[in-house]
Amino acid sequence: xxxxxxxxxxxxxxxxxxxxxxxxxxxxxxxxxxxxxxxxxxxxxxxxxxxxxxxxxxxxxxxxxxxxxxxxxxxxxxxxxxxxxxxxxxxxxxxxxxxxxxxxxxxxxxxxxxxxxxxxxxxxxxxxxxxxxxxxxxxxxxxxxxxxxxxxxxxxxxxxxxxxxxxxxxxxxxxxxxxxxxxxxxxxxxxxxxxxxxxxxxxxxxxxxxxxxxxxxxxxxxxxxxxxxxxxxxxxxxxxxxxxxxxxxxxxxxxxxxxxxxxxxxxxxxxxxxxxxxxxxxxxxxxxxxxxxxxxxxxxxxxxxxxxxxxxxxxxxxxxxxxxxxxxxxxxxxxxxxxxxxxxxxxxxxxxxxxxxxxxxxxxxxxxxxxxxxx
Length: 375
Known about the structure:
This protein has helices at 42-52, 61-67, 83-92, 107-120, 134-145, 166-171, 173-184, 308-330, 338-355; strands at residues 5-10, 32-38, 56-58, 72-75, 96-99, 124-126, 151-157, 189-196, 199-200, 220-226, 232-238, 254-259, 263-267, 271-275, 290-291, 362-363. It has 375 residues and is of the alpha/beta class. The chain folds into 2 domains: 5-100, Rossmann fold (3-Layer(aba) Sandwich), CATH 3.40.50; 133-316 and 344-355, Dihydrodipicolinate Reductase, domain 2 (2-Layer Sandwich).
């Protein structure tokens, strides 16, 4: 491996683009150089290469991988139809991977990518930017240290706009599942109930998501996973609870954690709030939420507030890109690595498998690797 790691970017203009800023993830990572971009749209790829200061652009990601002697490739498209071939090709070329979420539409695809990465001995890091936010990381450290007592349960909500239900399991749920695994360990079982309107979802209710990210169904989902030590993780989602321009709040996106001595709430843009009881007690006026404030994150070098909402995703990408760089040098797993990506896919597919097994609690890893909504 060269002293300076060579970075390539795979995008697909009009087909999932470059994800949430993955094209510029390594811009501020010392010891790396972005050298090439691949985009099937020639003009868009050339423009992106100029923006990033890359030497070359390609219309075929395989040609880029074959010719550019890359050390790391950023797989940017949000759409999943070509995800497996991109990951397999990158692994075969010996490239470590920074990958847009979601990882996979189903466990068959996930297994193929897992095998390719392990056989090639390459690292894969997922772009779960919430995992990188300084206030979240401080809260995770406090939980791990036992400062708030034992973690009991975590309740997660996506944005619950028009994508609520099945689509949100993959679109925003993956961020929360990554955090659940980080806090509680690998999931042991899954149980779920899915509805369409006011009735139970059936296989005939399979539909397409807003973008091609795999099979989905349901506009309302209640899912539960079991973790080591009796920790339970919940996912609740119902479509159209947050309506832009009509609701008196922006969205429901967040995680509510119950510990023995405190509650913790994660909210956008990666903020963490602590309450000194396991749940909110409205009749105890002496109890109140306290925000975890990180100097240098919430404030600049002069102590003035920073507009974190403008930069938080880009900042998160930088943290995760730098961590992948370090993981390669230190030969360790990245913060949100391949094992997390696999377990998240188990959680998502496990929710569907449980629902279609009448809510039965199913052990993870799932025995049946085929998605219940698959072909």
